């Protein structure tokens, strides 16, 4: 399949953004942990309460990433102005479900973002304002509700994204059992490295949480690499669809296309007969493994061992990880072969 | 709504005879011509007369050489789902009527108007739909957002995206001909069927077991393409018939010896036979 930039951009960036939102939401669901004198990442000690992983900068950066990703996805449409129509067929279409889940997830995300920035109308409870809104926003209860909605919405959106591809039977490399777990895992992993980098901007994360996140991302990197290796082994073992099978003539003998139906490339060949990635698969897979998983995992270990280096380590890990995930996603699209190409015997 | 309608009794579709198709592309050209000017047109091309013309066609005719030693066509098991990737070598049979000689098969490929098409259910907008009254699969060009997911979902390559229009396009089974009361009744058939010079294309109701097309499928062992996808194509393909014996494919076969009754011959010829037989 032709690797379209808009779709690669969408799946990678939205995966990372939703992964970060999932972790943040999980933190708010667990609720604030109050300990006097606990160490913040910057080294200050504050007698404050904070939800695990809570970093306003992380929430904001993830918000930007998800928004950018959704705008990117519009770039793939022939008629982007009609995109709203895609929200109508949730009963049958995973693409439609994804659209709805992504928009719904913006509701808790926007409220939490507004709270963290400190937009006044959400802080009425603190100032004793309107009765209707008072006493709820900013409470532990609202954190629990909004946090769990944010996590659930983020997970659901990524599940929908993965299923768009995993349900397409004619593309065997996508209709494969590792695809959905890989999308979820890589999203979570991307979210982890994003939060680690973003929290260096505001320093608002308990040191203990950050260490937990460093260990977590290292473990996720290992699982991510393992699942991708299994996926690649699995798709390499898939037998190709032959022209004989596609035409139903294989019972008569060896079927060989001797004349193409058209002299020029058509839409099908342009969209579905992409060879370059399969030619260089071995090298590109190695690049993806090193950049997406190995380098960030080593940098996370470095940050654990050497807390002074954690800011540059976090940003280098993010840069390498995102670049690696882009190569991984490019391969996911570009390596996949569509069944229709069997008719052309390419 | 892109949820599928309940299965219709009427299943309009095509039956394509691979035995008589000569690969002239008249169906593809007639299709392009009709749909360029009909209600669903135009089918605009990019650089139509230039070096690299590019555009949507609903019908594409492939040409294949089927080489040697296969099953006899009668028991070929054509169209039955085989293990994916099973090669024909596994089914080789030296007794095949087309053994060693090979066969040319022209293969028109267009929308099969499946009974449970994934191209419809994946559509996020409801633009892609299956008609409940006759089973024709259509795209509502006013609702299509051009996400192209339906083309990805179709293993038969029935859908082509029009860059010029920004929407997906596909075979309509000439829905603007087959119900068109301004045409003579005999002309209310898809343009490809009307154009075929060898009558290799047949249009009719494959949901009715008594229809001419259904009988043709039953007589000739018509088969569906890649049935393992479970999209239940309606269109059927009729396999090539067995070739007659004594064609060019058996030049090495020894001519049978004829019996000669020498007693019936006159003396001179009997002498000639004896001389030549030495």
Structure description:
The complex is a heterodimer of chains A (346) and B (278). By secondary structure, chain A is mostly helical. Chain A contains 13 helices and five strands. In chain A, helix 2 packs antiparallel against helix 3 and helix 2 packs across helix 6 (179-202). Chain A is globular and about 75 Å long. Chain B has 278 residues and is of the alpha+beta class. In chain B, 18% of the residues lie in helices and 17% in strands. In chain B, a hairpin with a 6-residue loop joins strand 6 (128-130) and strand 7. The chains are: A mainly alpha (346), B alpha+beta (278). The interface between A and B is large, with 62 and 86 residues. Strand 5 of chain A pairs antiparallel with strand 4 (60-67) of chain B.
Tell the overall outline of chain A: globular
Give the oligomeric state.
heterodimer
The description of the largest β-sheet of chain A is: 2 strands, antiparallel
H/E topology pattern of chain B: EHEEEEHEEHEEHHEHEH
Helical coverage of chain A, percent range: 55-70%
Terminal-residue CA separation of chain B: 87 Å
**How big a fraction of the residues of chain A is strand?**
under 5%
Helix content range of the residues of chain B, please? Answer: 10-25%
Q: Biggest sheet of chain B, in brief?
A: 3 strands, mixed
The largest inter-chain interface, given as chain pair and residues per side, is: A-B, 62 and 86 residues
Q: How does the overall form of chain B come out from the CA principal axes? A: elongated
Q: Rounded to an integer, what's the Rg of chain B over CA atoms?
A: 25 Å
Q: Which spans of chain A of ≥5 residues are poorly predicted at pLDDT below 50?
A: 123-134
Indicate the structural class of chain A: mainly alpha
Q: Taking all residues together, what is the mean pLDDT of chain A?
A: 88
How large a portion of the residues of chain B is in β-strands, by DSSP E? Answer: 15-25%
- Terminal CA distance of chain A: 13 Å
State the order of secondary-structure elements of chain A, H for helix, E for strand.
HEEEEHHHHHHHEHHHHH
> Number of DSSP strands of chain B?
11
Uncertain residue segments of chain B: 70-77, 79-99, 246-252
């Amino acid at each position: 399949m032709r690797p379209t930039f808009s779709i690669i951009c969408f799946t990678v960036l939205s995966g990372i953004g939703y992964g970060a939102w999932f972790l943040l939401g999980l933190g708010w669901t667990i609720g604030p942990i109050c300990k006097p004198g606990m160490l913040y990442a910057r080294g200050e000690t504050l007698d404050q309460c904070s939800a695990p992983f809570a970093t306003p900068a992380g929430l904001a950066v993830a918000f930007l990433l998800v928004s950018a990703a959704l705008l990117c996805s519009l770039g793939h449409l022939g008629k982007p102005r009609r995109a709203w129509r895609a929200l109508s067929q949730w009963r049958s279409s995973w693409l439609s479900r994804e659209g709805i889940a992504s928009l719904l997830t913006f509701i808790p995300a926007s409220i939490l973002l507004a709270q963290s920035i400190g937009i006044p109308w959400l802080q009425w409870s603190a100032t004793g304002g309107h009765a209707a809104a008072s006493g709820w926003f900013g409470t532990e209860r609202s954190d629990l509700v909004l946090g769990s909605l944010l996590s659930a919405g983020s997970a659901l959106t990524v599940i929908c994204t993965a299923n768009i591809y995993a349900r397409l039977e004619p593309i065997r490399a996508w209709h494969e059992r590792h695809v959905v777990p890989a999308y979820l895992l890589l999203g979570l992993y991307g979210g982890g490295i994003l939060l680690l980098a973003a929290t260096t901007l505001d320093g608002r994360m308990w040191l203990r949480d950050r260490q937990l996140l460093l260990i977590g991302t290292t473990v996720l990197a290992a699982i991510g690499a393992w699942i991708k290796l299994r996926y690649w082994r699995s798709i390499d073992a898939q037998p190709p669809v032959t022209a004989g099978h596609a035409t139903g003539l294989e019972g008569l003998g060896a079927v060989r296309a001797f004349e193409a139906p058209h002299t020029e490339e058509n839409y099908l060949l342009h969209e579905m007969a992409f060879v370059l990635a399969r030619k260089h698969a071995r090298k590109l897979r190695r690049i993806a493994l090193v950049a997406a998983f190995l380098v960030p995992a080593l940098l996370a270990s470095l940050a654990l061992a050497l807390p002074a280096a954690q800011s540059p380590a976090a940003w280098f890990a993010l840069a390498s990880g995102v670049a690696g995930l882009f190569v991984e996603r490019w391969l996911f699209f570009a390596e996949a072969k569509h069944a229709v190409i069997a008719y052309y015997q390419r | 709504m892109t949820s599928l309608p309940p299965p219709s009794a009427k299943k309009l579709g095509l039956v394509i005879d691979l035995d008589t198709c000569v690969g002239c592309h008249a169906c593809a050209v007639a299709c392009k011509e009709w749909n360029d000017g009909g209600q669903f047109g135009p089918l605009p091309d990019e650089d139509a007369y230039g070096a690299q013309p590019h555009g949507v066609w609903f019908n594409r005719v492939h040409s294949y050489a089927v080489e040697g030693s296969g099953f006899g066509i009668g028991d070929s098991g054509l169209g039955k789902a085989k293990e994916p990737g099973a090669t024909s070598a596994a089914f080789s049979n030296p007794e095949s009527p087309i053994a060693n000689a090979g066969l040319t098969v022209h293969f028109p490929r267009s929308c099969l108007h499946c009974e449970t098409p994934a191209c419809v259910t994946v559509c996020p907008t409801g633009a892609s739909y299956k008609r409940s009254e006759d089973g024709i699969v259509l795209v509502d060009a006013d609702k299509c957002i051009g996400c192209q997911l339906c083309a990805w979902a179709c293993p038969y390559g029935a859908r082509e995206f029009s860059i010029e229009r920004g929407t997906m396009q596909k075979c309509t089974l000439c829905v603007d001909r087959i119900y068109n009361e301004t045409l003579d009744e005999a002309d209310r058939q898809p343009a490809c069927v009307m154009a075929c010079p060898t009558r290799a294309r047949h249009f009719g109701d494959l949901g009715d077991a008594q229809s001419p097309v259904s009988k043709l499928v039953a007589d000739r062992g018509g088969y569906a393409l890649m049935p393992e996808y479970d999209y239940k194509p309606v269109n059927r393909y009729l396999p090539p018939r067995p070739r007659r014996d004594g064609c060019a494919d058996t030049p090495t076969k020894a001519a049978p010896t004829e019996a000669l009754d020498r007693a019936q011959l006159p003396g001179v010829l009997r002498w000639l036979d004896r001389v030549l037989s030495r």
